[in-house]
Structures are given as C-alpha cells and as structure tokens.
Amino acid sequence: MVQVPAHPAYLKPSLASAGLRSYLSEVTQVGGDPDKAIAKVYELARLENPPLRLPLGEETVAGFREKLAHIAGEVDKYESWSKDLAAEN
C-alpha cells in the first residue's frame, strides 16, 4: 500500500487520522483486489439510487451482518419501552 506523508496539521497523535495512519502502517497485506473494488465503486457511482453503505469484501459483509445482529438484539430487548408512547388527545 502506498502512503504519502501526512500534512503537518494532521500529525497530532490525538487525531483520528493519526490513529488510522498508525493502524495502516502496521498492515502488511490487504486482502482483496483493489482493481475489482474500484470497479464496484465506479459501478456504485453510476447507480440511480446508490446505497448509503456498501460493504466491499466478504469479511466486511460478515462484519456488517454481525453488527446488524447486535443492533437487532438491542431493538428486541428494548422494544417494549416504545409501547404506549403515543400522545393522548
């Protein structure tokens, strides 16, 4: 992966960009084919109604599904809190 030096304004270790840059500096191999991924991004850009989120790669899809399952569990757990909240006339 090619990395260019960070702009001096983004060198503070407390910034999220610095954390991401640090993480990426430790990545030795990126899975997937970047040419195939960018082809999908190009395809996405041409859609009439593109999705707000696009998980690219099987591991990313699995991560999305795991997160969705967690959210669904929380919704189910606290669904009863939403009952009888309609305004009474």
Characterise the protein shown here.
With 89 residues, the chain is mainly alpha-helical. The mean pLDDT is 91. The protein has helices at 16-26, 34-45, 58-78. It has a domain at 57-82. The chain has 3 helices and no strands.
The chain-level structural class is mainly alpha
Give the overall form: extended
Described by strand count, sense and barrel closure, the largest sheet is:
none
Portion of residues in helices? 40-55%
Strand-residue proportion: under 5%
Radius of gyration: 20 Å
Q: What gap, in angstroms, lies between the N and C termini?
A: 62 Å
The counted number of beta strands is 0
Average pLDDT score: 91
List the helices and strands and how they pair.
Layout: H1 16-26, H2 34-45, H3 58-78
Give a quick precis of the structure.
Helices cover 49% and strands 0% of the residues. It has helices at 16-26, 34-45, 58-78.
List keywords for this structure.
extended; mainly alpha; single chain; 3 helices
